[in-house]
Amino acid sequence: MTIHQRFTQSQVFLNLKGVNEMAVSQERKNEIIKDFARHDGDTGSTEVQVAVLTEEINQLNDHIRVHKKDYHSYRGLMKKIGHRRNLLAYLRKNDLQRYRELIQRLGLRR
């Protein structure tokens, strides 16, 4: 085995070692965007942002249940919850009907 082959194998191992299991996969994110988009090409509406954040929050919540002392991830979870709260407050203030539909579709308490 040459040094180049060993180097290539170790690069593959190191790249796989750093894969983030807590992140929402791109396929799942695309499904959420498709489900909550208001029109074709809509990726930034409040509904889409809240739905993606909800998925990320649920995954982080599962991670923190297993890794109770992962305070770094806990802080990230709190930031995402705050961001979702602000987006929901904005939607509630500007369009109450869309807010209620979104809450019902996502199964959130409010």
Automatic annotation (TrEMBL):
Gene Ontology MF term list: rRNA binding; structural constituent of ribosome
Entry's transmembrane regions: none
GO biological process, one term: translation
SUPFAM superfamilies for this protein: S15/NS1 RNA-binding domain
A Pfam family hit: Ribosomal_S15
Entry keywords, A to Z: Ribonucleoprotein, Ribosomal protein, RNA-binding, rRNA-binding
A Gene Ontology term for the protein's cellular component: cytosolic small ribosomal subunit
Keyword Plastid in annotation: no
Ranges in a coiled coil: none
NCBIfam families hit by this protein: S15_bact
Protein function: One of the primary rRNA binding proteins, it binds directly to 16S rRNA where it helps nucleate assembly of the platform of the 30S subunit by binding and bridging several RNA helices of the 16S rRNA. Forms an intersubunit bridge (bridge B4) with the 23S rRNA of the 50S subunit in the ribosome.
Family named by the database record: Belongs to the universal ribosomal protein uS15 family.
Subunit structure: Part of the 30S ribosomal subunit. Forms a bridge to the 50S subunit in the 70S ribosome, contacting the 23S rRNA.
UniProt-recorded name of the protein: Small ribosomal subunit protein uS15
